[in-house]
């Protein structure tokens, strides 16, 4: 069992958990993730390790309530325990001094961008961050990102904070202003990452994306997370989660991620019906 020792609400549908997992806390590196199972009959879901405290033996997770399991996780509070937490999984981010690294986080994608940005900054890079959300209330980790970035640009879809528009528009503007970019890292919804890669492709800018396909075991055995990469089959859980974005078949990946939309919708509706409004209760301390 893995106890929850801290819970914070970051936005109406996003919350942060600190979970006791000493071995993972000692070994995890930027870019890696865990797979958890809340109870014996629960599904396994992957979540990025946002941070860790090796001395206290805790890892930090940020979760967005988008389906049954994440909604159930949202009902848990400090003192509750998660049955299984496996990790760290996946290959760590390739951290080195590129020069100027532009990191782009969209929505919940800002969570995995943060530890990578921190690692890039510690390696001596100049870090330029572009953060986006649908509106001001859904923007997360702004303070933390400012602490590890040399420049930060904020965009919101509705213009309620920062610049009105999308992160890709801000990225293109910086490219046209000839801002130095030795590498670009983008994490967010698949359509956003696809669009980001199309922005950088004509300029030949090295672009890395962190993929979020359907995943089950996290060891490459089930094959659920397979993608087509540079014309070949790869498994995100063991070959990634980060890849050269210009070589990813995003159209295929987007279709695969929609495979179980009907079943996911039914599961969420049944959960909400049986659990009632309490499935969205979270503590704000």
Molecular structure report:
By secondary structure, the protein is α/β, with parallel strands linked by helices. The chain has two domains: 2-89 and 262-279, Elongation Factor Tu (Ef-tu), domain 3; 100-257, Nucleotide-binding domain of ferredoxin-NADP reductase (FNR) module (Rossmann fold, 3-Layer(aba) Sandwich). It is 28% helix and 31% strand. It is built from nine helices and 16 strands. It has helices spanning 22-27, 68-75, 110-122, 142-147, 167-176, 190-200, 236-239, 250-257, 261-275, and strands at 2-11, 14-20, 33-37, 45-53, 58-64, 81-82, 84-89, 100-106, 126-133, 151-156, 163-164, 183-187, 207-210, 226-229, 232-235, 242-244. The strands form three sheets. The chain has a seven-stranded antiparallel β-sheet, with helices on both faces. A hairpin with a 4-residue loop joins strand 4 (45-53) and strand 5 (58-64). Helix 5 runs parallel beside helix 6 (190-200). The two termini are 23 Å apart. Residues 277-285 have low confidence and may be disordered.
Topology record:
Elements: E1 2-11, E2 14-20, H1 22-27, E3 33-37, E4 45-53, E5 58-64, H2 68-75, E6 81-82, E7 84-89, E8 100-106, H3 110-122, E9 126-133, H4 142-147, E10 151-156, E11 163-164, H5 167-176, E12 183-187, H6 190-200, E13 207-210, E14 226-229, E15 232-235, H7 236-239, E16 242-244, H8 250-257, H9 261-275
Parallel strand pairs: 8-9, 8-12, 9-10, 10-11, 12-13
Antiparallel strand pairs: 1-2, 1-6, 2-5, 3-4, 3-7, 4-5, 13-16, 14-15
Helix pairs in contact: 5-6
């Amino acid at each position: 069992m893995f106890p929850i020792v801290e819970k914070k609400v970051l936005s109406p549908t996003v919350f942060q958990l600190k979970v006791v997992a000493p071995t993972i806390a000692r070994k995890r590196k930027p870019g890696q993730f865990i797979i958890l199972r809340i109870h014996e009959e629960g599904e396994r879901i992957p979540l990025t390790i946002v941070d860790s405290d090796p001395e206290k033996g805790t890892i930090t997770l940020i979760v967005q309530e988008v389906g049954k399991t994440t909604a159930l996780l949202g009902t848990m509070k400090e003192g509750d325990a998660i049955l299984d937490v496996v990790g760290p999984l996946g290959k760590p981010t390739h951290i080195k001094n590129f020069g100027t690294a532009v990191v782009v986080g969209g929505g919940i994608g800002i969570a995995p961008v943060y530890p990578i940005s921190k690692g890039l900054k510690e390696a001596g890079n100049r870090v330029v961050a572009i953060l986006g959300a649908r509106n001001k209330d859904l923007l997360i980790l702004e303070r933390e990102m400012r602490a590890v970035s040399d420049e930060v640009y904020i965009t919101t879809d509705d213009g309620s904070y920062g610049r009105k528009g999308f992160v890709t528009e801000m990225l293109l503007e910086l490219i046209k202003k000839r801002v130095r970019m030795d590498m670009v890292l983008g994490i967010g919804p698949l359509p956003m990452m696809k669009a980001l890669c199309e922005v950088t492709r004509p300029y030949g800018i090295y672009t890395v994306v962190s993929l979020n396909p359907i995943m089950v075991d996290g060891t490459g055995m089930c094959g659920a997370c397979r993608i087509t990469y540079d014309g070949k089959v790869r498994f995100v859980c063991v070959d990634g989660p980060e890849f050269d974005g210009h070589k990813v078949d995003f159209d295929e990946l987007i279709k695969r991620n929609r495979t179980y939309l009907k079943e996911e919708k039914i599961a969420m509706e049944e959960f909400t019906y049986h659990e009632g409004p309490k499935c969205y209760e979270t503590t704000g301390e």
